[in-house]
Amino acid sequence: MRHIISILIENESGALSRVAGLFSARGYNIESLTVAPTEDPSLSRMTLVTRGSEDIIEQITKQLNKLIDVFKLIDLADTVHIERELMMVKVKTTETTREEIRRMTDIFRGRIIDVTPTSYVVEMTGPSDKLDAFIAALDADHIIEVVRSGPTGISRGEKGLHL
Amino acid sequence: MELNGAQIVVQSLKDEGVEYIFGYPGGAVLHLYDAIFQQDDIKHILVRHEQGATHAADGYARATGKPGVVLVTSGPGATNAVTGIATAHLDSIPMVVISGQVSLPVIGSDAFQEVDMVGITRPCVKHNFLVKDVTQLAETIKKAFHLATTGRPGPVVVDIPKDITDPRIKVPYKYPKKVNMRSYNPAVTGHKGQIKKAVDLLLNAQKPIIYSGGGVVLSEASKELTELTRLLGYPITNTLMGLGAYPATDNQFVGMLGMHGTYEANMAMHESDVILAVGARFDDRVTGKLDEFCPYAKIIHIDIDPASISKTVKVDVPIVGDVKAVLEQMLEVIREHKQKPHKKALDAWWQQIDQWRALNCLEYDRESRLIKPQYVIEQLYEVTKGDAFVTSDVGQHQMYAAQYYHFDKPRRWINSGGLGTMGFGLPAAIGVKLAHPHADVACVTGEASIQMCIQELSTALQYNTPVKIVNLNNRYMGMVRQWQEFSYESRYSHSYMDTIPDFVKLAEAYGHVGMLIENPEDVRPALEEAFAMKDRTVFLDFQTDRTENVYPMIEAGKAHNDMKLRVAPGTSTDRELA
């Protein structure tokens, strides 16, 4: 099953490599990984998407917790949560396709943030499956490049990961 | 007080109460060595190879419970230390390794003797640091000792660039008394509800067994474990790492378990209905085939590391906490419990265990005209009255020592259990002897292992650490040969050495005493003579039976009740008993 593990970690040099190294050393897979400092610059928030059986996910969370730099973590899959990913897609445009791409972008609630005579850059946020759906709706021949941030997430309600 | 970086390191170690540093100088640590030169409080032990430094510090730590301290230079000094760091990591041994690094401005430029020590050691340390500011140095060293010695212990590396120890840059020095790390709070006491559940399960058991490991030694919980075991009257088995935590000469002790464990220990595990696992981690050498591991048992597991629980074997009652604290809690609950262990069931269980015991699985051919390695260990046990510190290398000799030297006290058996590092024994013995100068220290080894760190014979002379090296010389890498005999139709691929040095001459060349022992009747007198030479390191080269194997054996991937036992005297086939 897919799990989104959200980690509050010391913003120290090497902290990211400890997490990444743990996954490669123990043979766990990482689908995506995003990291940035929080409102407290001494802490980073890391969101990691992985897949595995319950046993493996349990080991992953335990091994992550064991890292000295890890402060707290939560498996968002266990909670009601919101998931968002940012995507930018550069597409080739022609007279005939411009209108259709604009319409599609509207339907998916994206925005066109760069325009040239032959291309658009479409910005879109949402759960990962929505972004997948947008890409699937585009003609593959028109896609120049796709840049995705990987999902980040937050639990609903009052509770949260903090010091 | 204003000190420079090099002085800060030395002063911090003094403030930490460090007695010995095991190290080897080099370019990146010259400032540090200059600071060491100008003081007498901390004794520096100059090894002959950095691997020796880590093993010696490790031996010191295992024998005392105090952290071992290592100092190496950057580049090759640091990489040579890695095997010893990984050895300490897999056995959870407290150790602080200070490694020199090239100066901050040249880091990342492939400078002379530069390696990314923090990167290289990341998977084999509890934590590591690169010091980037001299004002952080004292606190970082404090953190290193705090991490190394608390929770589940382990090695911590502090990588110090050369310019951080620059003698010209002085900063105010104050060694922190305590250190708070907001992201590190290891558990101590166990969850009361879980302990209650565990005790209920234990007292209701019909065929219980206690399975304890190195965590009991690390937690100094031998007394509590012994008390609990005697109070319950249950059989107890120790892992290779846990030997000595419960007295081996006690009747409730059924021997070591696992790949080369006793028949009774493995059978009792297999048939048990409740297992109390204490500070043990269900290592693959213990469990054998996981699907068939203890099929009838409910398992209680006490461990300080939550990640050790249900890692390989699913347990029924997990208890996270320090073994000593949790055992104390359990003892209290048991004493106040209305229920007592089932006497009738327990009597029947012991009867069954005694039947397994009667098989005498460790018996060997005592009529042989050749020296049997088991006999050497038995004699070593008698000559040292069972009270020596015994270090070992890795292989058959290690298993013989574990099987035939009956450790009654913790911290007496010192071996590389997790990583299985050949070359560990001799430097570890030097570390042990420094910690306990008046105790008998033996290094049980083989002719292959001993050659992996033989250079430390020179260290042993320089610092006058008279250890006795018991070399079980069968002219084979015995354990490799044994596996090749069992699993590769005796194709002895590169497990044989035909240019083994003359160890007697070698020992003499290093300034020690060498003895060659070729006949069984000479074994005991040689050991007596060697141990009578209190102030000399003695290398006893025992020429042992080349064909001897370690039994019992659970071959890799087999279950506990599927043991290979010794060929009975007078028969020609293996007895494969289930």
Folded structure, characterized:
The complex is a heterodimer of chains A (163) and B (578). Chain A is an alpha+beta fold and 163 residues long. Chain A is 29% helix and 40% strand. Chain A has 4 helices and 9 strands; from the N terminus they run βαββαββαββαββ. In chain A, a hairpin with a 5-residue loop joins strand 2 (32-37) and strand 3. The longest helix of chain A has 13 residues, at 54-66. Chain B is α/β, with parallel strands linked by helices and 578 residues long. Chain B is 35% helix and 17% strand. Chain B has a 6-stranded parallel sheet with strand order 3-2-4-5-7-6, sandwiched between helices. Chain B has a 6-stranded parallel sheet with strand order 11-10-9-12-13-14, sandwiched between helices. In chain B, helix 14 packs across helix 15 and helix 14 (373-383) runs parallel beside helix 20 (520-532). The relative contact order of chain B is 0.11. At the A-B interface, helix 1 and helix 2 of A face loops of B.
Seen as an oligomer or otherwise, the chain set is heterodimer
Broad structural category of chain B: alpha/beta
Give the number of DSSP strands of chain A: 9
Shape of chain B: globular
Report the major sheet of chain A: 5 strands, antiparallel
Number of helices of chain B: 20
Rounded to the nearest angstrom, the distance between the terminal CA atoms of chain A is: 29 Å
Report the count of strand segments of chain B: 22
Shape of chain A: elongated
Discrete helix count of chain A: 4
Strand line-up across the major sheet of chain B = 3-2-4-5-7-6
Q: How much is the average pLDDT of chain A?
A: 95
Largest interface comes to: A-B, 20 and 19 residues
Radius of gyration of chain A: 18 Å
* Proportion of beta-strand residues of chain A: 35-45%
Main β sheet profile of chain B = 6 strands, parallel
Contiguous runs where pLDDT drops below 50 for at least 5 residues of chain B: 569-578
User: Would you list the SSEs of chain A in sequence order as H and E?
Assistant: EHEEHEEHEEHEE
Helical content band of chain A = 25-40%
**Mean pLDDT reading of chain B:** 96
Structural class of chain A: alpha+beta
